[in-house]
Write a structure and sequence with these properties.
Length: 100
């Protein structure tokens, strides 16, 4: 790689440590939010099918509420919004579903 190519590469890569940390955290939170949404959808399906006892429904609901609260706190801490976490997959649309 020539020095000109290296220079162009370093211009494209954000090397500010704070920015790198925020972007990494944004990616991690995006994955956690995706898993949270999948778990919520699965929980709703199981409740609708009657697969869970009342205690299990209550426990699952509380756990999902705590996870959502933790996500909100982390998004605020890193000054992120739900839109920041929603990666555009081009023709497939957004990664995350939007809450009504």
């Amino acid at each position: 790689m020539t020095s000109d190519e290296r220079h162009l590469l370093t211009q494209r890569i954000e090397s500010d440590p704070e920015s790198v940390q925020r972007d990494l955290f944004k990616l991690v939170l995006t994955l956690v939010e995706l898993v949270r949404q999948l778990m919520e959808a699965q929980a709703i399906r199981r409740v609708d099918e009657g697969d869970l006892t009342d205690d299990q429904v209550e426990s699952l609901g509380v756990a999902l509420m705590h996870l959502e609260d933790a996500m909100e706190e982390l998004k605020q801490r890193f000054d992120l919004t739900a839109e920041d976490l929603n990666i555009d997959l081009g023709p497939l649309g957004p990664l995350l579903r939007s809450d009504p």
